Amino acid sequence: MADIPDTLVLRRHRDLQGKRNEAWLRRGLLVTIAAVPLLALFNVFGQRPHVETARADAASLELYAPAHLRGGLLWEARLTVRARRDLKDAVLELDRGWMEGMSINTIEPSPVGEGSHDGKLVLDLGHVPAGQKYSLYMQFQVNPTNVGRRGQAVRLYDGKHLLATIHRRVTVFP
Amino acid sequence: MDLAIRAVVLFTFVYLLTRIIGRRELSSLEPFDLILLIVIGDAIQQGLTQDDYSVTGAVIVVGTFAVLQVFVSFLSYRFSFLRTVLDGDPIVIVQDGKPIERNLKRERLTLEEIMVEARQQQVASLDQIAWGVLETTGKISIIPKD
Known about the structure:
The complex is a heterodimer of chains A (174) and B (146).
Chain A: H1 10-14, H2 20-41, E1 49-55, E2 59-66, E3 68-70, E4 74-83, E5 87-94, E6 102-108, E7 113-117, E8 120-128, E9 133-142, E10 148-151, E11 154-158, E12 161-166, E13 169-173
Parallel strand pairs in A: 3-13
Antiparallel strand pairs in A: 1-2, 2-4, 4-9, 5-8, 5-11, 6-9, 7-8, 10-13, 11-12
Chain B: H1 2-21, H2 23-27, H3 31-49, H4 55-78, H5 80-87, E1 91-95, E2 98-99, H6 101-106, H7 111-120, E3 129-134, E4 140-144
Antiparallel strand pairs in B: 1-2, 1-3, 3-4
Helix pairs in contact in B: 1-3, 1-4, 4-5
């Protein structure tokens, strides 16, 4: 048999003594890494939108938006108000989580008025006649440093009278 | 600060990835591997700097990578038990003209691949090989018989 090359130890480098579990560790880590794109297919990391609805006698409020986002993503939230009776002054109140660390690219159609109530954004939609539907499109981009979970509740008022609330939280992944 | 954190996370991820993918896959730069390497680099860059186009941002990221690389290299040099974890060990795949099947299977290596490396090192047949070693770099060293 030829001389063993310097620094090679047969027990360690040929027989791989003490390394029986290393291959399984490697396979385990590979499976863990493969699980990430698999989870992504199931919308764990966003940004597939889904519908949330709150109903009241006077009107219903529907939100179509993703609940999971990632830094830098462009995303849309569509708020739909369906009036069952005349809403003289439909008002939407959005939690701070909607604006904090988000760039607002556009809000269409432009609300009649905007304001702040107790630190929340207030959008005045104006008159929504009975049987009519009002859709508000909001386009955002996630600030890359905006990581974590934030409250994004939405409330629908008729004037000062609260009609419906959608409670939700958004998760932003880095 | 988030730039440095992202750099540390991605450095660790890429390091882990290179350790678990297998050394042989990384050493053979076929045209597809080369394209894949560029695509991976591009994907990592986007996750790293995102919308930051500043020189400061680039300095933070490159600086973090450099420090981590030196740190890993220092750990590998200073602590032998960590060297095995960080760099791996060479593996004997041929001894005295006989392939060690168990080790070939473990590294997903074929006899043909060994012979390609052998021919490149002016060794024509398996019988002429005294030692074949898969190095930590993914290269195969062929030591011919006297």
